[in-house]
Design a protein that fits this description.
The complex is a heterodimer of chains A (529) and B (349). With 529 residues, chain A is an alpha/beta fold. Chain A is built from 18 helices and 24 strands. The radius of gyration of chain A is 25 Å and the shape is globular. Chain A starts with 21 loop residues before the first strand and ends with a helix. In chain A, 46% of the residues are buried. The chains are: A alpha/beta (529), B mainly alpha (349).
Chain lengths: 529, 349
């Protein structure tokens, strides 16, 4: 990996270095958690006014490093310098005072307050003893205009789209005087168009002299927006790259430690007969509002149908309704021509339908159960795992060892509790279980959320292998790349409805992005003609 | 893999044992504060609980129902339900069994004994299943409903022994159950009779262990207890298992009532068990919901109760043992708090 250290002029520790070039220097940072060396002598240098991407697999230590920069954790050893000044942060307050702002992946906003109120929260302007709303609005407006961050200052957070909420978070950091802005996986919740807008904002901020740390695992975005890239793996920095001089393959190799196949070769495969069908399905969400509004589609054997969409547009409710976890209000779900609307999950599993659930900790896994109990969930009462009323522990353990081998689950300890595996290995357990159950039709929801490049590649291969074995596959994902590289057909969901159906080879990311933002396919294509 | 399991076992034993020692230490200071010698007091306590054959038998008699109520509550905990109504289910079991068993004179013991036990367990199970059903159907919390059911039991019991079942004069009570429905006596010292109830309670602990660890239904109940969402996703009916778990928990409590009836009093005395159902909560906690742990926890509480009578003679109130019990529970419960704090501290560091 040493040849990758292209920018290693400053890797030596020493007091004589010239610090004037850097906005942030984290030098030889080590941070240990019980049993884990989260950061192992990590050195990170961010130049003034650059957009610097930090990439790495889950558990590579990116978040730990950023949390130390933001004062949430305290490094065991090492030193932090901000604009050349040595700093010791005891909490985020210190970091904010030093000019650091952080936009978390999950927004920290009060839904019932307005944009302006949210921005000033904690540092409210006052007139006498009263909150000065007029001044707050004024200041927020000025900030938003200065940096081209369009927001409606009087709108309540709950009424504005996610992209705008993110802008509110950015304004919040600016309001507090941030010169260095950390964006933690900011594109995860955005449509492609919103991502473009965000990048535009980032460039504006850069022009006005702000320094930006961009944490991501999406290599194409990193290539597009950053000036330099720091790659982390296993708590260490494995590469420092200049974006213009590198490519996705090199970054991926530094992230994973080996060559990664970025593009899957999907063999052509002719789908067989229809195995699963949904007709005019209506489903309510937890607030009893319509979340799925008349959705219809078919899935054939040996076909992957992808459902794209921004989170919260009814995908969760749709999946729960067709897998028997949520009541469908109206419409029909047909499995091999048999009406299975609102049937219990056990009935569906008996018929040959399995489900990789989007929230593995809520639905797919029992944290307190050892691996060998988790891998039989759903088939625990059947042969060979049960003999009548009793569990066949010998066979269960043998099968678990086999599954863990086949799906490369680590550590390969069958007694390990479900909650003690890392996210990627939990997902491999779940994927292994649902695939090895031998389904005719499988619902695959967010199969790679939060996983690293290596695990994603593995799971994608497994999904394609099922397709070759003529399993019908419904894939729900927020990752457009995943949808495009796996699906035979793509449906786009917006506010509970299907905006259109396209084939990946006949469409563009822009077209799907427009549908994700609520435009119907007819409108888009009709408008062009 | 044997080593970590061993370590886990030792860890789970260490907490309650340590809790008991600390509790005795703190209570020692209280005894000291009232001007008595704590070492002497504990000596008397120990002697009162195990010092003679009679004392040992007395301790075992007191332990029998405590094991069963401990199992009842512990089983509920494993299934994710908090059965606070063991008290009522115990009384319901004893009441129903007493109602029928006075007429079992014509039956041989081999029939009458299991039949009476079944009636008691069935009554406890049915009574608890009401709370399970309400939880599954409407989401009504079992803590509320089982407490309400306790009160209903109180009045039903008092009505039965002053009305339809009333017999003799003095304290309200039911007629004595048939001789053939009484549990055989294992050992008799003076007026103390140790019935086969203690064997039944140990058998129940073995049953619970096997049921939870070896059967598919036990697997399902644990899955529902740990994560009902994942259970439902895995095709396990949460509603069905909540009702089932409450019923089994209630059956164990009913069994506690019926062994008291068949082995100790031989008649229903019109009152609830005097707190044995609630003691089950402490015992389940101290025993960490583990059937074997529950046996020892019940023995501890039983011994404290028996020994405290003797301690009373030397001028130390027997309620000192309630303090001991309270501190033990506090510490065992606090163990989770301590662990949580410790874990957080570790992360912060």
């Amino acid at each position: 990996m040493d040849e990758l250290r292209k920018d290693s002029r400053h890797s030596k520790l020493g007091g004589h270095d010239d610090h004037s070039e850097y906005a942030v220097e984290m030098i030889e940072i080590t941070k240990r958690f019980p049993g884990v060396l989260a950061n192992d002598r990590v050195t990170l240098r961010i130049k003034k006014g650059e957009i610097h991407a930090i990439v790495g697999e889950n558990g590579a230590g990116k978040s730990t490093l950023m949390n130390q920069l933001y004062g949430l954790y305290h490094p065991d050893s090492g030193e932090i310098r901000i604009f050349g000044q040595k700093k010791v942060f005891t909490g985020p307050r210190d970091a904010i005072r030093a000019g650091i702002g952080m936009v978390h992946q999950h927004f920290m906003l009060v839904n019932t307050l307005t944009v302006a109120e949210n921005v000033v929260l904690g540092n409210e302007p006052v007139k006498g003893v009263n909150f000065d709303l007029r001044k707050a609005r004024q200041e927020v407006k000025e900030l938003s205009e200065k940096y081209g961050l369009y927001v409606d200052v009087d709108a309540k957070i709950e009424d504005i789209p996610v992209g705008m909420q993110q802008r509110v978070e950015i304004i919040k950091t600016l309001y507090r005087g941030a010169n260095i802005i950390i964006l933690d996986e900011p594109t995860a919740v955005l449509t492609p168009q919103e991502v473009e807008e965000l990048f535009e904002i980032m460039r504006n901020l850069q022009k006005s002299g702000k320094t930006i740390l961009f944490i991501s695992h999406k290599l194409n975005e990193v290539m597009e927006i950053s000036d330099r890239i720091t790659v982390m793996r296993g708590g260490r920095v494995t590469a420092e790259l200049i974006t213009k001089e590198t490519n996705e393959r090199e970054i991926a190799r530094a992230m994973v430690g080996r060559d990664v196949v970025l593009k899957l070769d999907k063999a052509p495969h002719t789908p067989k007969e229809v195995v699963f069908e949904v007709k005019d399905l209506w489903v309510k969400d937890n607030r009893h509002l319509d979340a799925v509004k008349g959705v219809s589609f078919q899935v054939r054997k040996g076909e992957i149908v992808g459902i794209a969409g921004v989170a919260g547009n009814g995908q969760t409710e749709l999946v729960e309704a067709i897998t028997g976890l949520r009541k469908a209000e109206k419409g029909q779900v047909l499995f091999e021509g048999i009406d299975v609307t609102n049937k219990h999950p056990r009935v569906l599993r008996e018929m040959g339908m399995t489900h990789i659930a989007e929230d593995r900790l809520k639905h797919a896994l029992i944290k307190q159960f050892p691996a060998y109990y988790n891998v039989i969930l759903g088939r625990h009462y059947k042969r060979p795992f049960a003999n009548g009323a009793f569990l066949n522990h010998q066979e269960i353990k043998r099968y678990t060892a086999e599954l863990m081998e086949e799906f490369d689950v680590r550590p390969r300890i069958i007694e390990h509790l479900g909650g003690n595996f890392s996210g990627g290995n939990q997902q491999k357990l779940v994927v292994g279980r649902e695939i090895k159950a031998g389904p005719k039709f499988i619902v695959v929801a967010q199969p790679t959320r939060g996983l690293d490049v290596g695990a994603i590649e593995f799971i994608h291969r497994q999904i394609l292998r099922m397709r070759e074995q003529d399993v019908g596959i419904l894939l729900i994902s927020m990752e457009l790349e995943e949808i495009f590289s796996l699906s035979d057909r793509i449906l786009v969901m917006y506010e509970g409805q299907i905006m259109g159906e396209v084939r990946p080879e006949e469409t563009t990311v822009e077209e799907v992005g427009l549908m994700m933002a609520g435009k119907r396919l007819e409108e888009i294509r009709g408008g062009k003609r | 893999m044997k080593k970590p399991e061993m370590k886990k076992l030792l860890e789970s034993i260490a907490v309650p044992v340590l809790a008991v020692l600390i509790a005795l230490l703190i209570s020692g200071f209280i005894i000291l504060a009232i001007g008595k010698n704590p070492i002497k007091a504990y000596g008397v306590l120990l002697h009162g609980a195990f010092g003679s054959k009679q004392a040992i038998i007395d301790t075992l008699i007191k332990t029998t129902p405590l094991i069963l109520t401990g199992l009842a509550v512990g089983f509920g905990f494993r299934a994710g339900v908090f059965n606070i109504g063991a008290e009522g289910q115990m009384a319901m079991g004893a009441l129903m069994a007493a109602t029928f068993a006075s007429n079992f004179g014509g039956l041989p013991p081999a029939v009458a004994i299991p039949l009476t036990m079944l009636i008691g367990m069935g009554a406890g199970a049915g009574w608890a299943a009401i709370a399970g059903f309400l939880k599954a159907k409407t989401g009504a919390h079992e803590v509320v409903t089982t407490i309400m059911l306790n009160w209903i039991t109180t009045y039903v019991a008092s009505f039965m022994v002053t009305g339809p079942l009333a017999t003799g004069s003095g304290t309200p009570k039911s007629p004595e159950i048939a001789q053939s429905a009484q549990l055989p006596i294992l050992m008799r010292v003076g007026a103390m009779e140790l019935s086969a109830g203690i064997l039944i309670s140990i058998a129940a602990a073995v049953f619970m262990y096997v049921f939870l660890n070896k059967t598919t239904t036990g697997y399902e109940i644990k899955a529902v207890g740990f994560n009902p969402y994942a259970a439902e996703y895995g095709g396990i009916s949460v509603a069905k298992n909540v009702v089932l778990a409450m019923a089994i928990s209630g059956a164990l409590a009913g069994l506690a009532g019926v062994t008291e009836l068949m082995g100790v009093h031989h008649r229903f005395l019109g009152e609830l068990s005097g707190g044995k159902g609630f003691d089950g909560i402490s015992i389940a906690l101290i025993g960490q919901n583990n059937p074997i742990g529950i046996i020892f926890a019940a023995l501890l509480i039983g011994a404290l109760r028996t020994g405290s009578n003797e301690m009373q003679f030397m001028g130390v109130s027997k309620y000192i043992v309630i303090i001991v019990q309270g501190i033990v529970i506090f510490l065992v419960a606090a163990d989770r708090i301590v662990k949580a704090i410790y874990a957080r501290k570790k992360v912060k560091e």
